[in-house]
From TrEMBL:
Keyword Cytoplasm: yes
Binding site for ATP: 57, 61, 117, 150, 194, 231
Record-linked Gene3D superfamilies: DHBP synthase, Threonylcarbamoyl-AMP synthase, C-terminal domain
Protein name: Threonylcarbamoyl-AMP synthase
Record-listed E.C. numbers: 2.7.7.87
Protein task: Required for the formation of a threonylcarbamoyl group on adenosine at position 37 (t(6)A37) in tRNAs that read codons beginning with adenine.
Length: 324
């Protein structure tokens, strides 16, 4: 079983233990403001291979590389003016930029799935401190079995991956609760690859232009979270429910009533007040709780497709997609 260290009790011990396991070439679970990450040395192909093996993740699916700060990021990727403005405005924070990889970068091609671009983020808080102490970028997808619900607490990680990893660094519940927003600049145009914890409207405000969105899924995987089926519980997921059948789990939003809720196996509400930030923070934890209830189907009531609602609905559509 994985060793767990509470960083609120001994931050220095957590950094030293984390650096030791990372330096030995093994992945560890780290807290970030978005979700918990399964982190390993982005310059070490053996360490990166351990991430894919631990998660059961397809190797054509690239990994986000996390940096301590913008200066570290500049050593590995080339920044255009729009991307630089976004980095200066939102890092550290829940924004990933897909950028051209510099030829001299030590990031291994296994982390980028052989692409000539790299997804880069600077996380808030402890994760940034750990990366700074380690001195190298960390490749870090979400700390869960590939395709399943992301982890927003150390307990989630332990229940899923605890027997497959050596160390979990525990900082309590993730405050954002959904993965980072991923954007890419192409020919001066800004494209949204994955909605996430930073609302599109904030990005557009700084960039001074609209985010372009794909009308249909691309066959090319340019960034994490682009697989059609992803973030899936064991139960079937049903969206925009106006009624719930007996024995189904219901995850509601706001004060809208759902017919048949009294006969549901479990009823959870992402936010009674209709607060999308609260809903995002609760999303993956409530999906896990509904799945653990034994219900064969989880019904979600409608969630507004604006602000953080865009990221929530993206995760729900992928969770509800047909599974191969």
């Amino acid at each position: 079983m994985a060793r767990s260290i509470d960083i609120t009790k001994d931050r220095q011990q957590a950094i030293e233990a984390g650096c030791a396991v990372l330096g030995a070439g093994f992945p560890i679970a780290i807290p970030t403001e978005t979700v918990y990450g399964l982190a390993a040395d982005a310059t070490n192909p053996i360490a990166i291979a351990h991430i894919y093996e631990t998660k059961g993740r397809p190797r054509f699916n690239p990994l986000i590389c996390h940096m301590a700060d913008l200066a570290m990021a500049e050593r590995h990727a080339a920044f255009d003016p729009v991307s630089r403005a976004l980095a200066e405005a939102f890092w550290p924070g829940p924004l990933t930029l897909v950028l051209p990889l510099k030829p001299e970068s030590a990031i291994h091609s296994l982390a980028t799935a052989g692409l000539d671009t790299v997804g880069i983020r600077v996380p808030k808080g402890f994760a940034g401190e750990l990366i700074r102490a380690f001195g190298r970028p960390l490749a870090a997808p979400s700390a869960n079995t590939s395709g399943k619900i992301s982890a927003t607490s150390a307990a989630h990680v332990d229940a899923d991956l605890g027997e497959r990893i050596r160390l979990i660094l525990d900082a309590g519940a993730s405050t954002v609760g959904v993965e980072s927003t991923i954007v890419k600049v192409e020919d001066g145009k800004l494209r949204l690859l994955r909605p996430g914890g930073l609302p599109a409207i904030e990005i557009e405000r700084v960039a001074g232009q609209k985010l372009l969105r794909s009308k249909k899924a691309s066959a090319a995987i340019e960034a994490p979270g682009m697989l059609a089926s992803h973030y899936a519980p064991g139960a079937t997921v049903r969206l925009d429910a106006t009624r719930v059948d007996a024995g189904e789990a219901l995850i509601a939003f706001g004060k809208t009533s759902v017919a048949g809720a009294e006969d549901a196996r479990i009823v959870l509400n992402l936010s009674q007040d209709g607060d999308l930030a609260e809903a995002a923070a609760n999303l993956f934890d409530y999906m896990k709780r509904a799945d653990a209830s034994g219900a064969a189907t989880i019904a979600f009531s409608a969630i507004p497709d604006e602000g953080l609602g865009e990221a929530i609905n993206d995760r729900l559509r992928r969770a509800a997609a047909p599974r191969e």
